[in-house]
Amino acid sequence: MNIAENVNRIRDSIEEAALKSGRRGCDIKLVAAAKTKPAGYIQQAVAAGVDAVGENRVQEMLEKCTQDAYKDSPLHFIGHLQSNKVSKVVGVCDLIESVSSKSLLELIGKKAASMEIVQDVLLEVNIGREPQKFGFFPEQIDEVLDFTSQIKGIRVLGFMAIPPLNNENESNCYYFDTMFKLFVDMSKKKYDNVSVRLLSMGMSDSFVDAIRAGSNMVRIGSAIFGSR
Fold first, then answer.
1. Mean pLDDT of residues grouped by 10 in the chain (228 residues)?
2. Within the chain, where are the H helices?
3. Domains in the chain, number
4. Residue 99 belongs to domain spanning
């Protein structure tokens, strides 16, 4: 396995998909999803030019921090964030992509304000309305952004979504298109503490369709590092 070659191959696919959506490859952020991967692999991905590294598990992330796994790279938290782990993530991660409740927004804001920083986050949208998944429903987003505007220490930069597991491209594209419409609609509105400019959707098996639909941030794991 050659991580640098994998990153280059993904960049080529990103460039092609971006051009088909009227953009350039450099408009798309590539996040290396590094769950279970050792620090050495992550450092290779960073050296190969990924835009950020994403982690799913707090304890694993903190351990890799001690190994300088994320040196010279922004760090994103992309997994489900439990309320009792908020204090270990705020100020450590450049972006928390998976904020899925108002209570988390309040906890993150409170911790960030106590540190005299502003924590950047994305709101997780349960675009498929799946009961087993976390996140806000699309019709809740407007009210949630208004709620966020009252919280100090936090800034919403956009949204993250994972469509229902489906092998049919047509189904994925429906959810990606729906999510992009929400992204465009919300980006036109004005709230304090909100600057909607990032749409994180698309993984190893779906990032091309996601980019064509309008995603500007993709989270790629197995296509970079190999299967877990």
1. 94 97 96 97 98 98 97 97 97 98 98 98 96 96 96 97 75 90 96 96 95 97 89
2. 3-20, 39-47, 58-65, 86-89, 102-114, 141-148, 169-187, 207-213, 222-225
3. 1
4. 3-225
